[in-house]
Protein 1
Amino acid sequence: MRTLLVTGPGGSGRTTFAAATALAAARAGRRTLVLSADRTDTLGAVLGAPGADAHPGLTVRRLAPDTRFRDDLLAVQERAASALDLLGAERLDGEELTPLPGAEELALLRALRDAARESGRDGGHDTVIVDLPAAPRALAVLALPEQLRRYLRRLLPPERQAARALRPMLGRLAGVPLPAAWLYESAARLEDELAAVQRVIEAPGTTVQLVAEPGPAGADAVRTTTTGLALHGLRIDALIANRVLPDASTDTWLAGLAAQQHKTLDAWESAYGRVGRVPHLGRDPRGPDDLAVLGLPAPAAAPAPVAWPVTEAPAEEADHRYVWHIPLPGVARDELGLIRRGDELVVTAGPFRRIVTLPSALRRCTVAGAGLREGELRVRFAPDPGLWPRGN
């Protein structure tokens, strides 16, 4: 399944790009699904018709998290009934529940997981395009499965389930109640769901397309967003410059804006390679005809995954033996932070932070230093004599 995650700065035209690309994919004969959690249905307005009417091969799903959120919370309340009764808590009715912040994002991730499961069946989709929120929020959504899985493993380690049969006896010996079996079962079920979503996000066919309007504000947003995406191992297969003005204009004001745009475009092409250019129509695109004028192609094949390789250091660099290469384009030296915590590395790049597990060979090493070179963080490791096998 080819999955395209569309994001960019707020107001950059992400939804227009998602709609135009989805329509191009459907017209190319691909069974296409486009997902959106926008409550205002901007996607439907851009397409100019309900999803089923925009094109025979296109399906639009605008997600409403209310029902699933309500069902999930009521189910948890039912499972914890004895504890709530003990505390004298008053039960919540389904009619009084409204979605909390973040419910839309969870609904979007679930829909992405479900689309992947459907792709191998009859009636499944070849291409899925996700209209994500604006870039900072979108990054938080895409990082959520990995983060929640880490929290679950820390709070309820899977190996503790091995003592399930001993819990009643241990509870009597300790004099305190131990977690009930349903808690571990719920955690295992949530782990499976999160792992399924993470597999889709990290799949070879999943990439990000970053949409921005060329200019100083767009340039700053693109630099920050590319750093955050790289830190989380998400691949950008295209940077799309939206609402590009024509080169020649007799209007001095428009000519000045066009010159500013082209300055940004030249910088983007120098830093990121080829940049897709979408013309400004002089109006907000509405309907299939306007979207076709934008000239966006169906999604191409996904580029090769970007690795974080571990290499051996040259013999003359005696202070370390291995180097871990972490691509972080656009980050400045003073925006970097690095902390070793057991078998994990806490990497901070600007406003973003990720906790990554060290490769097995590096877990027996100490951090000997780090440096930023050519858009790549290079972390140096030296074998720890207390952990490294003798003679190696």
Protein 2
Amino acid sequence: MVQLTRIYTRGGDQGRTSLGDGTRVAKHALRVEAYGNVDEANATIGLARLHAEGDHDAMLARIQNDLFDLGADLCRPDDGGAARLRVSDAQVDRLEAEIDRLNAALQPLQSFVLPGGSALSACLHLARTVVRRAERGVVALAEQEAVNPAVVRYLNRLSDHLFVLARAANDDGAGDVLWVPGANR
């Protein structure tokens, strides 16, 4: 377990930070940007949880924990050996199973969905867009450095999960706000 007794270290005062293996890099390095975006996504999910109950809250709690695992995975540029915490395909599979279960109860889409509806749905749409940005950052990092491929799969599935969960939070799609192309011309 992690124990944090001192919050500030002054180590980043010159614009550099330490990765999980102790390597010092610029705070704007792609890897730091990638796990920073994941942290921001996690925070937006925390906001969504203020409006979630029951199974939806439990799903989001698991996802928040997974995102910490994902950040730990991203913060080490080396393979880290067998003991390294890694995002796994089982975590991706769980997201897919939850998506399928949630989607089965939804009304079929006849148009694109505008972010909104219930407070939970609006927060989940915001989280979805932040997850998409995190995914783009991880893909950019993966073009330059080694990244666990399950990380990209997890983020890709997570944005889908949040979309479907947002629809479920809108009375299983009945309360979705639909795009009407050219409505305001």
Protein 3
Amino acid sequence: MRSAVEVRPAVGDDLPGVAALCAEARTESASGAQICAPDVERLVRHLSVLLALPGGHVLVAQQEGRPVGFVLARVLEPHLFADEPSLYVEAVYVGEDARRRGVGHALLSATAELAASAGASHVYSVPIPGSRGVQRFLSRLGFGPVAGHRVVQTAVLQRRLAADLAPARRGTRSLEDLIARRRRARTEGMSGPVDLRDFQAEYRRRAGLAASSAEHERLSG
């Protein structure tokens, strides 16, 4: 006989069990590092933060007194891109040994009730990456694609930005150096970026000597 599934809001004593399930979900995904921290103690702290947030919810499913699944969700109030509240499901997961027993349906039923009580017109969900079973399950319940997330490591993003901006920075620096040299030339009485005053003085002296010599020869002739 299948035991009943109880779904309720998680309290402090439930968090270690939920954290253990989160760690289990992490191992099932090809993108585990993008889901959660690897150790249970840190996960308990993260779950505590979620519960402390305005609109933060952790629903836990239990069978025979042990946690077998969870939903992590937030109620989002109207904002710049939405006129009505919505419920954002950050994660829904059922332990491997409790699947196909109605746990997922019980969790989503409680999630729908939570959304309705908050006045949320839509429920958004981000399936755990690589979990095709969850994606098929949500699709059967009417969830459809809206937008896709893209992810990049912070270090990679900074490196790519630096590489893209480097040519522009070099060009800007070269222009700034040229302007600075011309300003220094004007300030110091130079005729250009190179000091030609000695050259010009010598040129005028020699031109004067040549003119005097030519005049002397004309008069002597």
